[in-house]
Input
Amino acid sequence: MTSIPSQSELSALALETARRCGVDLAASAGDVPTSSPVNGQGVTTIGWRDAAYVDEAVGRAQEAFREWRRVPAPARGALVKRWAELLAEHKDDLATLVSIEAGKITSEARGEIQEMIDICDFAVGLSRQLYGRTMPSERPGHRLMETWHPLGVVGVISAFNFPAAVWSWNTAVALVCGDPVVWKPSELTPLTALACQATLAQAIAEHGAPEHLSQVVLGGPEVGEALVDHPGVALLSATGSTRMGRAVGPRVADRFGRSLLELGGNNAAVVTGSADLDLAVRGIVFAAAGTAGQRCTTMRRVIAHTSVADELTDRLAAAYERLPIGNPMQEGTLVGPLVNKRAYDAMAAAITDATGDGGKVVAGGGRAHEDLAPDAYYARPAIVRMPEQTAVVARETFAPLLYVVTYDEFEHAIEINNAVPQGLSSSVFTQDLVEAELFVSAEGSDCGIVNVNIGTSGAEIGGAFGGEKETGGGRESGSDAWRAYMRRATNTINFSGNLPLAQGVDFTI
Output
């Protein structure tokens, strides 16, 4: 039986935890109320900044940039290394704040903080590997090479569902690349943001780095818009809805800035006739119901071969009936609350649309624990068997709602996977080498993340994270995503003593 903490209990826990992380609660006080999805009730009141403050913050960041870009990259990495140590010291406290403000179960909240530590480790190594290339010149006595330099101020706009990790993906890499960061977090997770910033501020102070190397600006949409439009923001990294991205991208481009967009996902798993169904069920249930369906990589569609679709659906429905739903900080809980009523209403509307299209609900749907927490929105993860992929299936619903459709030919499964506007994550469960290779080939999934025999969520920081089409095309975290945070210069060095021109041009004076 789940228990839901009272308003006073949760508020006291949140404020004391934030204080232990170094948050100056008096300096952060204000009149904007915040609440927790755990009980749907107020936690505290916070002070917000306005759009004019963004100009001040960017100005301070530009001053910090002029100093920080001169610091050798390995020395910049040393700062990030210390930040990782502080994150590890405060891992449990930061995870508690993530659970309170975002509703994540404890293991997922701790995993998010571990992801921050991991990206710091990656960035420390990266600080000694910001490699350029040397290319052969066609002219004797010349050398061609490329060098990479710090870009400038990085603006980060993050969403509630990963209130800490996504900021760290940008910040750890930006710092070793020589860039300061101005962060506009979600309005729903201010204490998490302040606590994360406090750990980095301590590392900055200990290293004697510029004070305003990292800043957090709490505020409403106008703060985000000010970051988007500010000419002093060289790179704007924004995580959110496709609708948001449609507004952000053109506005940044209009001022010739760079944007890095991580937007919607409508992620599918193809389950073939040869699939290990034990493996598939475990992978699907976590990807579809984990984080209460509120990850951009959440699995929202299963494309099952007709020979296994009935058995797979029955096994998924049975697993869903066993999912413990409730207080995310209570041991044993696997599914916490939706973030708010709007999220629940969107899920309910999508189920109505799906049944109107001939779909059949085979598991879940509706609210849970309404008697214990009438102001919170605990949803029962739902599975809807669909006759085909209709418009509602192609629409991302940010909730634990999974559609099951069928296919006969593998090429058709790939077509169904690709026939949505989004292109973030995808997977195939198969024991057939040809199917696996085809799915990850140029003829296969059109997503930025393409997996075999695992689900669609749970990406590691070593790989570049992001997607195609309406997902925005951005890449964050590992691989060569660091290049977005730097500017490239191509250098030609003449040591010949002569001045031959390229392409054999003769311009003798």
Remarks:
- The chain has two domains: 7-263+472-489, 267-466.
- The longest helix spans residues 106-126.
- The first strand starts at residue 29 and ends at 35.
